[in-house]
Each structure stands twice: as C-alpha cells, then as structure tokens.
Amino acid sequence: MDLKKLRYFIAVAEELHFNRAAKKLNITQPPLSQQIQSLEEELGVKLLERTKRQVRLTSAGTIFLEESRNIVSQLEQSIKLTQHASQGKVGLLSIAFVDSALGGMMVNVLKVFRERFPDVQLTLFEMTSAQQLKALYDGKIHVGFLRLVDPSKHITSRLYTNESLVAVLPENHPLAKSDKQTCVKAIILTGLAWIKLRNAI
C-alpha cells in the first residue's frame, strides 16, 4: 500500500472536507478524490460517506484512521531512529571507570554526554584498570576511564586529565618535617609500607 494514500486519507478524515484537505496537502481536489477512491477499492471497504453537504467517516473509516496514524507515526519514528543510529545519537554505550574517577570527572563527562546524546542508553561499570583492559579486549565495554597503561595497537587511548598523587606521612617521618609542600620522587618511597584503597587502580 502506498504511504501517500494513508497521508491523504488522514488529511481528509481530520478535515472532513476535501477542499480543505487538498489545500492542507498542497494539491488539487480531483487527484485527492481519486487517491481516496483508489484506497477504498484496494481495501474493499467504504471509508467515507460523501454527500453534497458533508463528509463523514464510516465505522471502518474510524478504525482505519487510528491505524493509519499509528502506521505513519511508527514509520516516521523508525526513520528518525535509523538516522540517529547512523550518526551515533542512539543506541547502547557501556562505560567502565576506576572508583577514584567517580567524583567530579565522571559526573561532568556523563552530564555533557547526556545533554548531547539523550537517546543513548548508558551502562556503567566500576572496574580496576586491569579489568577494563580485559573488558575492552573482550568487547564487553566500549569505553574505559583508567589509569595510565602501556599503549596497545588494539586500543585507542586519549589522555583525559592529569592528577597529582599525594603521599600522606606520619608527623615524625623525615619527609614530613618540612614546613612547605615537598615534591617527593616515587623512588624515595620504595620499600615503605603503603595503604591502598581496594580497587583504586
């Protein structure tokens, strides 16, 4: 069935007047009448009762009007979704992150993404950097926010932000005796006992 016929029928059914419907469709009345007659012949039912004074829907026409609206609306939505999918504006996106990124960084990233792509469904996972690498290789996630790792020819990486690490030391530690903030080289801390948050890296 020609979709154009459905649009013509909807216009006539809503206006209940062929002249007004024709103007709404930017066509003349004779072709519109011919299309409606052709549609009725194709369906084998009478959709409209016509007299010199009025046009009204038959019971079959009332049902067909509702179904026609649903068909046209569904088709338009399908076209829109297909176009958005080809542009990356709709679909599913799986994102993993280390727990230390859950603060301001991830909040800002997700806020901007949601504003730009409201129809993309996000699934979030908390993983260590090592777990994210494996998940990326296995195709279980699409994007990962992780700590610096060795580059791989199979994964494209971009530096998002730099963060400073702070060494928290006892007051009586030699490195803590300076009144000013001291830049500590990592090698100096080699061999010292560390307290690390679980799954922080």
In short:
The protein is α/β, with parallel strands linked by helices and 201 residues long. Helix content is 43%, strand content 12%.
Layout of SSEs?
Blueprint: H1 3-15, H2 18-25, H3 29-43, E1 48-50, E2 55-57, H4 59-86, E3 90-97, H5 104-116, E4 119-126, H6 129-138, E5 143-145
Parallel strand pairs: 3-4, 3-5
Antiparallel strand pairs: 1-2
What can you tell me about this protein's structure?
The protein is rod-shaped. The protein is built from 6 helices and 5 strands, in the order αααββαβαβαβ. The mean pLDDT is 83. It has helices at 3-15, 18-25, 29-43, 59-86, 104-116, 129-138, and strands at residues 48-50, 55-57, 90-97, 119-126, 143-145. Helix 1 (3-15) crosses helix 2 (18-25), helix 1 crosses helix 3 (29-43) and helix 1 (3-15) crosses helix 4. The chain is an alpha/beta fold and 201 residues long. Strand 3 (90-97), helix 5 and strand 4 (119-126) form a beta-alpha-beta unit. The protein has a 3-stranded parallel β-sheet with strand order 4-3-5. A two-stranded antiparallel ribbon has the order 1-2. The chain starts with a helix and ends in a 56-residue tail after the last strand.
Helix proportion: 40-55%
What profile does the largest beta sheet have?
A: 3 strands, parallel
How many beta-strand segments?
Answer: 5
Q: Give helix and strand order, one letter per element, not per position.
A: HHHEEHEHEHE
